[in-house]
User: What shape does this take?
Amino acid sequence: MKQVLLPRSMNDLWAMMHDLPDAAVYAGGTDLLVKMRSGLIPPKDLICLERIQALKGVMVHGDRMVILAGTPLSHLLREPAITRHLPVLAKAITCLGSPLIRNMGTIGGNVCTASPAGDTLAPLYALDARVELASETSVRSLPISRFILGPGQTLLETGEILSAIHVEKPHPEAIQHFEKVGRRNALACSLASMAAILRLSDGGIVMAASLAWGSVGPTVITCLEAADWLIGQPLSMDRLTQAAAIVQKAVCPITDIRATADYRRAVAGNLLLRICEQKMGNP
Amino acid sequence: MSIICKINGNDTEIQGASDRRVVDVLREDLGLTGTKEGCGAGECGACTILVDGEPRLSCLMMAVQLQDKAVTTIEGIGESEALHPVQEAFVEHGAVQCGFCTPGMVLSAVNLLSLHPEPDRNRIRRALSGNLCRCTGYVKIVDAVEAAARAMAEGSKP
Assistant: This one.
């Protein structure tokens, strides 16, 4: 019989990870337990993080925010700091899985699963998030774009957990946009998604742009060339259309049971045009 | 190792089951077969239970996760002679066809109405969006939840 352990504190956790170095660590279980049951992952001892209060909550220190990794996704939507300062992330969480999945799944789990279609990833890349990795004896932090190597692959080492996600608050007047395209609204893996954070001057000139696409490559794609094309120019449909063409060259989607690569490439570019539609009322 | 929890208001001790799924413990050990297993992968909501009042998927929980928790299954909602207003409304509005999704639908609806006693149809659809129904097309289910909300508002008037 495999063991399933329920640590109540970080000290409990480190002792259990020390005793069972091969155990799989999970929080919501919405990914790991599915893969284990279907045989994609062999049965292992399990350590469940759900009772560790030190891994839950959101903290704001001036311009910096710390999202503790074990916070369930639905709880993040009830955090005023998230809905007020990070609407790009809140919007992505709103269309992740289903209410049931959001009650169980955590933001740390979504990051560590490192699926190209992970709904929180594009917003976190657009926010230049850093992940905090803790072990019994050390804490290190690195940009999320370095942490995630490919589908299901991260730099998480044995004995480490993802403990927190650090972001800086975007400018209060920044445009924050997220959109996901899937077969249906709930319980659908994204075919393509885009997170965008843009700052416009009073005269409507793009001062800063951070763009990230999900489901159109092995990891989230951030297309600096497209952002550069927008910066310094008025936000217009023409400019966005040109940037969309740059994006369509930059992404590297695959064809799978959900959609073809060509469709995903087209959608990735078109998602950018929606910024104009939704934010300028000028389709 | 034994797991101590409350199930439908009753103190319960579950023996030797830490590596089993909650849905299996409920159905096989405790005989609470109202909880259904559909997909077993978190995509259908048939196995919905309330844990400390919050809807969760019992197919994606290990038994040890019930430790110290208060669980409500469909058996803990209403009684056969005195249905819960949500159950009453499901019957009245033809919101049940094959019935397989119904326990999960009812539990998600009960949770919704506890948080939002007067939901509009959009909010109802969002709250039930993790519970799939292959029979009804959802319209009658949404009708039923609206009616239940009205009935519960009437019932709570002094």
About this structure: The longest strand of chain A covers residues 192-200. The mean pLDDT of chain A is 94. The CA atoms of residues 97 and 187 of chain A lie 4 Å apart.
